[in-house]
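Consider a protein example.
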Amino acid sequence: MKFGMNSLAWQSPVTEIERLLALSKKYECEIFELALEDFTTLDPDRINKAIEDSGVQIKTVTGVHGPTRDISADTEELRQLGIQYAKDMVDFAVAIGAEVIVGPIYSAVGKARQQTPEEIDLKWKYGVENMKVIAEYGAKYGMKFGVEPLNRFETDFINIVEQGVEYIHRIGYDNVGFLLDTFHMGIEEAGVPAAIRLAGTESKIFDLHACGNNRGTPGLDNTNWGPIRDAIKDVGYDDYCIIESFTPDCVEIAKAASVWRPFSESPESIARDGIPFLKNLFAG
């Protein structure tokens, strides 16, 4: 297992990649997950130089899905913008050597509504059809996609692993699997270990967000981590383990994700305390 931080915990949008990778190295992270919030602040050549200088790899990138990045939106214009954003993420990920794109690619964060059965069917139709387009585009470059179920307050689409399995099966591409996030699972799943085992047997897990139940530091929260570790090991997942927290400055999703306050003593303390905890946890 390789451990690291998501950029959303430290800076959003990212403008100081050198500083963030240096912090990652300071706290003994092997990897760093880059949120692609604003492409105008991100230069692939600069990022590749920072990767080389720090020795910290970027193998996963996460989408930041605001209202104009929604492949299941009601309007064709917004759906096309969502598809283009996903294709742009693929191109950017290839340029920096990343292998997996993760997040709630199926919808905009914060879109949570009561819907009729007909509206729900149409949302699934758009979400599946357009994800097929994205998966096929990514497959040309060997890119994988981790679909992330979100809690009910952040999406009305995919809330639990069981729904995610259905979504991934309908898409039918081998390069589409799961990003599992313990924060969301702790809200929505009846049993988190059982949901992990379902994801790992009925589909593939491409990324793991190990997050405190309050979006703060894992190990300083009330999550029962032992059974989660055991389930992850049972399904043979051993790739990336990322701490995702948020800064209130995140332009695209701060309001949708209800990011109103700091979640820890300091942004750095999440890595200082959380990374050793997770390494010890999975060493057990």
